[in-house]
Amino acid sequence: RSIAKYRLEQFTPVVVDKENVLLTTHGALDNNRFLDPRSKKTFHCNVAKKEVSDIQAASSEIDQNAEGYRSEIDNGLDKYIKEHYPSGLLTVYGKSSGGSISIIACIEDHKFSPENFWNGRWRSEWKIEIEDGNAKVVGVLKTQVHYYEDGNVQLMSHKDCKDNLTVSSEKQLAEDLAKLIAKCESDYQVAINANYNSMSTTTFKALRRQLPVTRTKIDWNKILGYQIGKEI
């Protein structure tokens, strides 16, 4: 169960009819089945092993009242993903309740380099609540890097984003949302890069030994006069 929970939290991709689909709690159905809204299919999945089987056409799982917005946002963000992510994946869900429509867009990209002892993953989850000509947008962006050569170090970061968009049409909302997400995620990446550059000259530098064990700086012109020089 812990492995399955982890895979859902990480937006783990699986292949369904030669297409990548993200495993998330938003697409989870009963009896270990999941929904792929884009292809309008459901499938059984052994989440721990990432094994897909029993692929079927979806019917009642698709909310037709939300499908117009879901489809347009899926198309708009798919273009954004292809332009900004090396191997990014996207799954967009939609449902309606009363007079409101909820859209959830999940984005994932990762690069694993076991031969160099590091792995990295990007995840972002965007929730859009549409009602009365307004769309409330809430996003959570997460990065995680694991380095494990001669040690075990993890860097984890996240950022929350909130904004409001005016809704004039499904297509216009999709375009405005893609621009908003592009700006938020770009700002986040720039901030991460700036933070790491700052850490290399401050935090990490403070961890290094400032002076040798003698507590005095070495005069390299007199190196032979030091005990270590004599031993060499």
Automatic annotation (TrEMBL):
GO biological process, one term: actin cytoskeleton organization
Pfam families, sorted: F-actin_cap_A
Stretches that traverse the bilayer: none
Keyword Cell inner membrane: no
One of the record's GO cellular component terms: F-actin capping protein complex
Keywords: Actin capping, Actin-binding
Keyword Transferase: no
GO molecular function annotations of the record: actin filament binding
Superkingdom of this protein's organism: Eukaryota
SUPFAM superfamilies per record: Subunits of heterodimeric actin filament capping protein Capz
Alphabetized PANTHER family for the sequence: F-ACTIN-CAPPING PROTEIN SUBUNIT ALPHA
Subunit comment: Heterodimer of an alpha and a beta subunit.
Family: Belongs to the F-actin-capping protein alpha subunit family.
Task of the protein: F-actin-capping proteins bind in a Ca(2+)-independent manner to the fast growing ends of actin filaments (barbed end) thereby blocking the exchange of subunits at these ends. Unlike other capping proteins (such as gelsolin and severin), these proteins do not sever actin filaments.
Name of protein: F-actin-capping protein subunit alpha
